[in-house]
Design goal:
The protein is of the alpha+beta class. Helix content is 41%, strand content 18%.
């Protein structure tokens, strides 16, 4: 299973850039395999992302704002969902991944 983070490389929004960096940085630091999908460069991917975000997560106006996170083709959530899962220490469940063993578990 590959986590896919849909991003935009040409956002003028500082918040969007920071949110994208936060998600990518977390995945990298926790050695979680993922793929960045730049919707700016790939119109087909942007359309796929928009079609596969559940109706209840669609904004009232406009298009969904990156980052949007999927496990393969299964929608996980947006940045707010990701942030909440970090606060609750449930990121692996949010990403639909098996929890990684802690350092203590692997040393036993």
């Amino acid at each position: 299973m590959v986590i896919k983070v849909y991003i935009t490389s040409s956002s003028g929004s500082v918040a969007v850039k920071k949110h994208q960096q936060d998600v990518v940085g977390f995945l990298e630091s926790n050695r979680i395999c993922f793929e960045e999908v730049d919707i700016t460069m790939l119109e087909e991917q942007r359309l796929w992302m928009n079609r596969n975000i559940p109706q209840n997560k669609q904004p009232a106006k406009g298009n969904p704002v990156p980052p949007q996170i999927f496990n393969e083709e299964s929608y996980c959530g947006d940045y707010e969902d990701f942030f909440q899962s970090k606060e609750d220490n449930t990121v692996f469940a949010f990403l639909r991944l098996s929890p990684q063993p802690s350092v203590k578990d692997s040393e036993s």
